[in-house]
């Protein structure tokens, strides 16, 4: 089942999981929890019958926190069945919606696993599932939760997901020997593995219509409708009750259709069905991809979409991981035989260079040998499967508006009860005991607007559709609501604020003097030649169908070097420039945490070289001190960085000709290198970045950059993009001992002393290293001060990006957004309250919002849509609650006449006026600009109390004055009893005038609550809403003025009323006076006092 809510709170699991950071305090807490959960009773159950989940990396983010053993007892089951029968199924509906009651009614706590029949599972999102205990063919037992099977591990006394663990505790060499012939092709072995691991596919369950109706129509929201329907029927409003349930069924059907569309899209993304060549017992067979089993050995082919997580045991391939990371660059994967340490134990987390993940596509394979892989994880155990589990079961949202809305309704219910008992004496005099009791329940159900969740869902769904028209793919409707609250937005630099494409400005050789803008025709300096050789070989560029594939920086560098590359016969690739032929024998790809990459190269003369490139700061650390002038290095680096250039450092080491390059390890070469020089590139800002940043800043969105680039370069980008103002005093914080004002680099400052002196007139740019130093001081106030005044975070590793967002969320209780374009941003995007990625190919699954363009203007659309959505939701809520208050006032007034509306009149005010208007509000589009004002979601404010309270009073007073005016007429009909003594009268003048006034006020209440500026378009631009309101408003006035023409029989107007045209004109005058008062109260007082005054103040500021 696809859930639509997402929890905003960050929760750290008490076990390892992918993409979940364990910070120092959380690790300490988790360690204490794990110690507390060591149970003395055999097997693992303590006196709270709590079980343990073992550490694993299979669950992803949708983890289990706790498990409790339960036993279903026959006695409780029989009693429950009896209660369901005698309550005509009502008890079953209550059980369906209360897991606490279900636990008490059916289960007892169990202290022996052998006796338990079920488990209570507590998920990380604090939801609970009761799952049945399963006995497996291997005599072990477990359960299934959220598409993952779990089994009990007797050795470690805990539960663990069922996955292929045979690769663990094996060296790489042992893995190859174990799997080189594939699985044993015995029928019983294959059947056992199929039963244990399931099919090799991510099956997205789509409920049937009957299943969906049974699930949805038994939820608590519909229980209120059933109660309301029963009360209406008991009071004689059978037709209205029938229309009520029919409308609910239709809305449920529409939601089902939308759900099927959404799930079918997910199924399409998840579906991989191809034919696979598989080795079993050393023999080659052809299988459907869904029949692959963990341990199978299969052949990789060009353009193949990988159907599982697999380990490359022979050959080497290039893959595209854009479906997982959003980056369409080739990623080299090497077989485990090429790993430096063949005795290393297999570890899934640390073997990514050897693992091909499900959903990735092979660009190029080694044509000289057969490229073989071992199936590791399939279905929901795979990395892609973990992403789909997170999408199918997003964390529940905790949104203040929802919580306050419920509290507000509870207050109204209490007030309704007070009013009921104030008029109780009159009620009991005028009505039968049955109707008096029904009216009590009717009063309570009137205060609970059952269609509000549907209206909220509609507002969010319409917003997603609008975003889709703007090429923004949104996968979680509730995130549009969260977007309205964003206070901080963090930006990656390269590819987000700046263009992806780069231009090479030139290079500096090892002398670090003049900038050389072109490759000389004749190179006399040997080091300069070696530097150009490094340009041509130390990169991740590959040739595919005559086209260079790789990171833009690498491609530009190769083109600048003058080298041409081609696939090598006995090596990774060959770089050719005239008579120079360089063979890349071994390659270590760039890794963010190391800030460098390297390769081993052999030239045409048999000389061996090791080339390393990386960030200038990193190259300065690993190059021999006597090979570079530190003063010149820092001077040039600062100069280029202040100009906004991207700077890459190079170093090399010449190796002996007698060694086997394939045996050389990375750590052997990345030390005591000879410095070669610097490559200078320009990464230009996107044309509209500064403009869009200014819009965000004008809306008081705090903008920050979190980048892996050089600090000075990133500060220059922040200035160019207007994240930093020209007048800002900027302190560069490389470390606590290395801090200075940007405009006075020679003068060091003491950042701690500055904060202590309260002389805070600056903004900070900080490196990842400095941030670590500050965190290790355990001075939370200093950390908060640093974070509060930092605008630029540079040289940040992927995990640091995530941690920075986490700290803003927790230390400052802020809603934080993140936008990025690369694999190193994925974790931060997931951590943020809303995450945005660019997806020029397939949608990136890491972000709730993916933009199919290149501009950050998408943020304006997302935030504006969020503010529009919450504004629409607030208006729907206010309107719905207000008309329910009016209904309550109507029933109290009409008690004096032993009367009530007819079924058609009830249908008319609900399904011709109220529901359509609330639905059409969702069509209101956002303004294209962002205001400093945010929608006020707090219903317990002076603004909301005066706003809704005023409308309650004016509307109810209007109805009452219309009724009093009628009582003063000589044609007043004094009704003394119920119709036939048992049901309400529904055709008299009292009912008619209240009905006519209600029509007008139902329309007006929607109109006065409509807030356009500063969140959404003016009312008349929502054409459907405006035309609908106009038609019914005019029709309502015409019914007053020309009742003989527009007073259709179906409305059941009293015959006397057709003759009282002057009276009706007076009634219209009363209604219009109160409508004018209502509009003046809202437009002239509330909006002027609480909205427009704020806008004016903000504009002045």
TrEMBL record:
InterPro entries: ATPase_P-typ_cyto_dom_N, ATPase_P-typ_P_site, ATPase_P-typ_TM_dom_sf, ATPase_P-typ_transduc_dom_A_sf, ATPase_P-type_domA, HAD-like_sf, HAD_sf, P-type_TPase_V. The keyword DNA-binding does not apply. One of its GO terms (molecular function) is ATP binding. GO terms for cellular component: membrane. The chain crosses the membrane at residues 77-95, 202-224, 230-258, 405-428, 448-469, 880-899, 905-924, 945-966, 989-1012, 1024-1043, 1063-1081. It catalyses: ATP + H2O = ADP + phosphate + H(+). Residues 273-391 form the P-type ATPase A domain. Its main location: membrane. Keywords: ATP-binding, Magnesium, Membrane, Metal-binding, Nucleotide-binding, Phosphoprotein, Translocase, Transmembrane, Transmembrane helix. It is found in: Membrane. It is a multi-pass membrane protein. The keyword Magnesium applies. NCBIfam families: ATPase_P-type (TIGR01494), P-ATPase-V (TIGR01657). Belongs to the cation transport ATPase (P-type) (TC 3.A.3) family. Type V subfamily. PANTHER family: CATION-TRANSPORTING ATPASE (PTHR45630:SF8), CATION-TRANSPORTING ATPASE-RELATED (PTHR45630). This is P-type ATPase A domain-containing protein. It comes from Ichthyophthirius multifiliis. The lineage of its organism: Eukaryota, Sar, Alveolata, Ciliophora, Intramacronucleata.
């Amino acid at each position: 089942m696809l859930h639509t809510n997402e929890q905003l709170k960050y929760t750290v699991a008490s076990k390892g999981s992918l993409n979940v950071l364990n910070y120092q305090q959380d690790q300490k807490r988790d360690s204490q929890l794990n110690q507390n959960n060591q149970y003395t009773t055999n097997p693992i159950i303590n006196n709270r019958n709590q079980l343990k989940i073992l550490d694993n990396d299979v669950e992803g983010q949708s983890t289990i926190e706790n498990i409790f053993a339960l036993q279903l007892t026959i006695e409780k089951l029989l009693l429950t069945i009896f209660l369901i029968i005698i309550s005509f199924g009502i008890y079953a509906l209550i059980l369906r919606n209360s897991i606490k009651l279900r636990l008490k009614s059916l289960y007892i706590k169990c202290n022996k696993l052998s006796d338990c029949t079920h488990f209570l599972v507590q998920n990380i999102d604090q939801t609970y599932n009761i799952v049945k205990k399963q006995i497996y063919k291997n005599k072990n037992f477990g359960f299934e939760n959220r598409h993952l099977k779990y089994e009990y591990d007797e050795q470690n006394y805990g539960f663990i997901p069922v996955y292929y663990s045979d690769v663990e505790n094996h060296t790489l060499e042992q893995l190859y020997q174990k799997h080189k012939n594939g699985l044993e092709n015995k029928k019983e072995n294959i059947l056992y593995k199929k039963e244990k691991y399931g099919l090799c596919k991510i099956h997205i369950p789509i409920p049937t219509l009957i299943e969906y109706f049974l699930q949805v129509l038994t939820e608590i929201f519909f229980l209120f409708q059933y109660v309301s329907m029963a009360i209406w029927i008991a009071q004689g409003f059978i037709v209205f009750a029938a229309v009520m349930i029919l409308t609910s069924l239709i809305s449920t059907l529409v939601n089902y259709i939308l759900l099927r569309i959404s799930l079918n899209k997910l199924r399409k993304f998840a579906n991989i069905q191809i034919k696979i060549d598989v080795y079993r017992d050393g023999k080659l067979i052809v299988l459907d991809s869904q029949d692959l089993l963990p341990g199978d050995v299969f052949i990789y082919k060009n353009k193949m979409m990988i159907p599982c997580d697999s380990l490359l045991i022979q050959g080497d391939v290039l893959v595209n991981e854009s479906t997982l990371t959003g980056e369409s660059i080739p990623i080299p994967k090497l077989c485990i035989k090429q790993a430096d340490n063949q005795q290393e134990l297999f570890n899934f987390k640390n073997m990514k260079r050897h693992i091909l993940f499900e959903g990735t596509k092979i660009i190029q394979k080694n044509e000289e040998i057969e490229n073989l892989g071992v199936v590791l994880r399939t279905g929901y155990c795979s990395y892609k499967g973990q992403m789909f589990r997170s999408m199918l079961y997003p964390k529940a949202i905790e949104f203040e508006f929802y919580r306050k809305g419920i509290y507000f309704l509870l207050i109204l219910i209490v007030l309704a009860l007070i009013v009921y008992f104030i008029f109780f004496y009159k009620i009991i005099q005028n009505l039968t005991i049955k109707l008096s009791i029904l009216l009590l329940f009717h009063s309570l159900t009137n205060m609970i607007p059952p269609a509000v969740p549907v209206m909220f869902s509609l507002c969010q769904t319409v917003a997603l559709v609008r975003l889709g028209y703007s090429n923004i793919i949104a996968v979680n409707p509730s995130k549009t609501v969260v977007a309205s609250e964003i206070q901080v937005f963090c930006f990656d630099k390269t590819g987000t604020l700046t263009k992806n494409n780069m231009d090479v400005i030139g290079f500096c050789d090892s002398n670090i003097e003049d900038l050389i803008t072109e490759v000389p025709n004749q190179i006399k300096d040997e080091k300069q030649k070696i530097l150009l050789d490094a340009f041509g070989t130390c990169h991740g560029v590959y040739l595919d169908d005559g086209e260079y594939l790789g990171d833009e920086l690498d491609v530009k560098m190769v083109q600048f070097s003058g080298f041409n590359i081609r696939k090598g016969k006995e090596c990774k690739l060959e770089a050719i420039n005239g008579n120079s032929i360089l063979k890349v024998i071994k390659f270590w790809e760039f890794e963010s945490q190391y800030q460098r990459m390297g390769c081993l190269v052999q030239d045409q003369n048999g000389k061996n070289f090791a080339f390393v490139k990386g960030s200038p700061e990193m190259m300065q650390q690993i190059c021999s001190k006597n090979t570079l002038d530190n003063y010149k290095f820092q001077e040039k680096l600062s100069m280029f960085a202040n100009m906004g250039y991207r700077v890459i450092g190079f170093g090399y080491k010449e190796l002996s000709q007698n060694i086997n390059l394939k045996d050389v390890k990375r750590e052997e070469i990345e030390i005591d290198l000879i410095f070669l020089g610097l490559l200078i590139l320009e990464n230009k800002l996107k044309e509209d970045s500064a403009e869009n940043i200014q819009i965000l800043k004008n809306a008081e969105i705090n903008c920050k950059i979190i980048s892996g680039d050089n600090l000075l370069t990133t500060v220059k980008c922040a200035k160019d993009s207007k994240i930093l103002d020209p007048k800002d005093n900027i302190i560069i914080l490389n470390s606590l001992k290395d801090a200075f004002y940007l405009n006075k680099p020679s003068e060091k400052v003491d950042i701690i002393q500055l904060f202590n002196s309260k002389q805070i007139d600056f903004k900070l740019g900080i490196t990842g290293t400095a941030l670590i130093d500050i965190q290790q001081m355990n001075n939370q106030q200093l950390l908060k001060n640093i974070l509060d005044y930092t605008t630029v975070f540079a040289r940040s590793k992927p995990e640091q990006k995530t941690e920075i967002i986490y700290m803003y969320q927790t230390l400052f209780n802020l809603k934080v957004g993140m936008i990025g374009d690369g694999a190193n941003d994925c974790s931060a995007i997931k951590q943020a309250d809303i995450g945005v990625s660019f997806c020029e190919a397939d949608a990136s699954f890491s972000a709730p919002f993916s933009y199919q363009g290149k501009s950050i203007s998408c943020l304006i659309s997302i935030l504006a849509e969020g503010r529009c959505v919450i504004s629409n939701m607030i208006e729907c809520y206010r309107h719905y609650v207000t008309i329910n208050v009016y209904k309550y006032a109507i029933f109290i007034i009409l008690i004096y006449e032993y009367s009530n509306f007819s079924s058609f009149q009830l249908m008319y005010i609900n399904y011709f006026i109220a529901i359509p208007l609330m639905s059409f509000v969702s069509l209101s589009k956002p303004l294209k600009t962002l205001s400093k004002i945010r929608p006020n979601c707090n219903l317990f404010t002076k603004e909301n109390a005066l706003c809704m309270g005023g409308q309650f009073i004016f509307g109810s007073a209007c109805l009452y004055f219309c009724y009093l005016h009628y009582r003063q007429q000589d044609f007043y009909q004094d009704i003394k009893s119920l119709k036939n003594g048992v049901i309400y009268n529904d055709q008299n003048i009292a009912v008619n005038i209240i009905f006519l006034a209600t029509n007008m006020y139902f329309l007006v209440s929607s109109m006065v609550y409509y807030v356009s500026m500063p969140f959404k378009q003016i009312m008349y631009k929502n054409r459907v809403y405006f035309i609908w309101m106009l038609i019914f408003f005019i029709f309502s006035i015409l019914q007053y003025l020309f009742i003989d023409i527009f007073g259709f029989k179906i409305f059941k107007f009293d015959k006397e009323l057709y003759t009282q045209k002057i009276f009706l004109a007076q009634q219209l005058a009363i209604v219009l006076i109160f409508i004018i008062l209502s509009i003046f109260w809202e437009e002239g007082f509330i909006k002027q006092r609480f909205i427009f005054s704020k806008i004016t103040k903000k504009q002045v500021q």
